[in-house]
């Protein structure tokens, strides 16, 4: 009963304080306040007692996992209050600092995103978060294995169901041809679009863009991430592990909406993200949140033409 009343009170507060916010986004504003209020329960344990007690469990999608749950866990680790972490398959290397990490979830769920034990969930009007420290993945996974004669340019693509419909934010094969032709001589391009079997799936179906064979036939000098995984010279434990090892040696990224862009934002340098729609636009996540993950310089392109503009300005 108390929770229902609290939700109504906070909902009314949001309407009064943010009268111009579209109705579909109001509950994210409300949820921010719920997250903040939830953390009040732990003031004594977190700031006075400071002994290991915190059990962090997250079963949501990849982006909120690495944007919220992971930095929350790392804050507790640095604070001396982290006891255990629990997450999806292929997350052990993300939570490398955890005293005890368990990979309990074979799939990620939308319901799992709404974990009010984290400082924020999904989107927020306020990303000035306490109890949030990004994990130094670049420093952790930088290596001497994936090094080339030219600087690395990561092209991280996706071709997924979006909002229960067809793919929206992806780099087309026609555009890849333009990008490859222009930058293949200056950079060692590494192309990455994970296949379903290499990642933990969520509520979005992954489709086939039919570009792998085309790349191998027409651009033999461009490296496919999946081929690096087959070779596995770095002895990666899984595809996520390999991605981090390769990304850690790069400072130039072209990525796309969702977890693809969020992961690329963890490794500094410059990241150009193609995102054509989504809550990230209203909340300006790419500049207010993603840049905090590593200090990366972020550019949000809404079209492939804008990707080209940012590439010409920065690469």
Secondary-structure map:
Elements: H1 2-17, H2 26-39, H3 43-49, E1 54-57, H4 62-79, E2 82-88, E3 101-105, H5 137-141, E4 152-156, H6 173-183, E5 188-192, H7 212-218, E6 223-224, H8 225-231, H9 239-247, E7 252-256, H10 259-264, E8 270-274, H11 279-283, H12 285-288, E9 297-301, H13 304-314
Parallel strand pairs: 1-2, 2-3, 4-5, 4-7, 5-6, 7-8, 8-9
Helix pairs in contact: 1-2
Beta-strand fraction estimate: 5-15%
Query: What do the pLDDT scores average to?
Result: 95
Q: In whole angstroms, how far apart are the ends?
A: 56 Å
CATH topology call of the largest domain: Rossmann fold
Helix content: 25-40%
CATH class of the largest domain: Alpha Beta
Biggest sheet record: 6 strands, parallel
Question: What is the gyration radius calculated from CA atoms?
Answer: 20 Å
Query: Which residue ranges are poorly predicted, with pLDDT under 50 across at least 5 consecutive positions?
Result: none
Could you say what the CATH architecture of the largest domain is?
3-Layer(aba) Sandwich
User: Structural class of the secondary structure composition?
Assistant: alpha/beta
Strand order of the largest sheet: 6-5-4-7-8-9
Number of helices: 13
